[in-house]
Specification:
Blueprint: E1 4-5, H1 20-29, E2 34-41, H2 43-48, E3 51-52, E4 55-56, H3 62-75, E5 81-89, H4 94-107, E6 111-115, E7 118-119, E8 122-123, H5 135-149, E9 158-159, H6 182-194, E10 198-202, H7 216-224, E11 230-233, H8 246-256, E12 260-265, E13 268-273
Parallel strand pairs: 1-2, 2-5, 5-6, 6-9, 9-10, 10-11
Antiparallel strand pairs: 3-4, 7-8, 12-13
Helix pairs in contact: 5-6
EC number: 3.1.3.15
Catalytic activity: L-histidinol phosphate + H2O = L-histidinol + phosphate
Pfam families: PHP
């Protein structure tokens, strides 16, 4: 049974829709033992002047987030293991990398999610990203961005939502399949294993053609390559989706051969049986 969910967002993220206290209380009500908020640090948007639905991205108030989260962490001690994390959206600029390292040095998050949202100077979540691009070109650009992000100089624990580009893709067949991108996916998966990082299984798949991303073909290949560190993630932006599809993910992981999920806490890895 999966009893953790560390990839969630509250009002402190621009696209979050729920108060932090309600999210924690909901996690307790759903029987989670470990719960974490991982608010967006979207400095990639700032660096590339990318608009979010036609408007500039509002950057997180990091000080306010960590202050409130640490206070709630103490308040809920003994009721749930509430971890205070962040999601750092990769960009190749030196400025963004320095800002992320400064964030870690100043606030000491309990864990860090490394993600890719932007490539080719746009967010590949939105349908307009795919205009005039073949699936091969668009997905390859995204995947090579992930490969690049794995060598980021800041400390991170989790590699997030491989397949993000497929969530709202406009192709007739949007699914990200291992067989179609095996060369670059092998490079990504091998590097995750080599760097001792944790691969996230994310149930915010939307119209990706799979109930979670990455799908079982990619997860099976990761296992074949020696990968054993996985973590469940709902990527909930409201309380309603906390722990969504956790039973399905647990079942599929066990079918592949995984025996546990891995929780990162201050650089240490804690294994919880599936």
């Amino acid at each position: 049974m999966i009893t953790e969910d560390l990839h969630t967002h509250t009002f402190f993220s621009q696209d979050g829709r729920e108060d932090m206290r309600k999210m924690i209380e909901t996690a307790i009500g759903r029987g989670l033992v470990w719960y974490g908020t991982s608010e967006h640090f979207d400095y990639d948007y700032m660096r590339r002047n990318i608009l979010l639905r036609g408007k500039p991205m509002l950057l997180i108030d990091a000080g306010a987030y960590f202050k409130r989260a640490r206070r709630l962490q103490k308040e809920f001690e003994g009721k749930i293991h509430y971890l205070v994390g962040c999601e750092l959206a990769y960009d190749d600029s030196g400025l963004v990398k320095r800002l992320y390292m400064q964030t870690e040095e100043k606030y000491h998050p309990d864990y860090v999610i490394n993600s890719v949202h932007t490539c080719l100077n746009a967010d590949c979540y939105f349908p307009e990203f795919f205009d005039g691009k073949s699936k091969k070109f668009a997905y390859s650009a995204y995947l090579y961005r992930i490969l690049e992000s794995l060598d980021a100089p800041y400390a991170y624990d989790i590699v997030a939502h491989i397949g993000y580009c497929s969530r709202n893709a406009t192709y007739t067949d949007p699914k990200l399949r291992y067989e179609e991108f095996s060369d670059v996916l092998d490079k990504i998966l091998k590097k995750i294993v080599e760097k001792n990082k944790i691969l996230e299984v994310n149930t915010s798949a939307k119209t990706a053609g799979s109930p979670f991303i990455p799908d079982t073909d990619i997860l099976s290949r990761y296992y074949e390559l020696g990968g054993r560190k996985v973590i469940f993630a709902s990527d909930a932006h409201d309380a309603g989706r906390i722990a969504d599809k956790r039973e399905l993910v647990a079942e599929k992981l066990k079918e592949i051969g995984f025996t546990h999920v891995t929780i990162p806490v201050k650089g240490k890895h804690i294994e919880l049986p599936l």
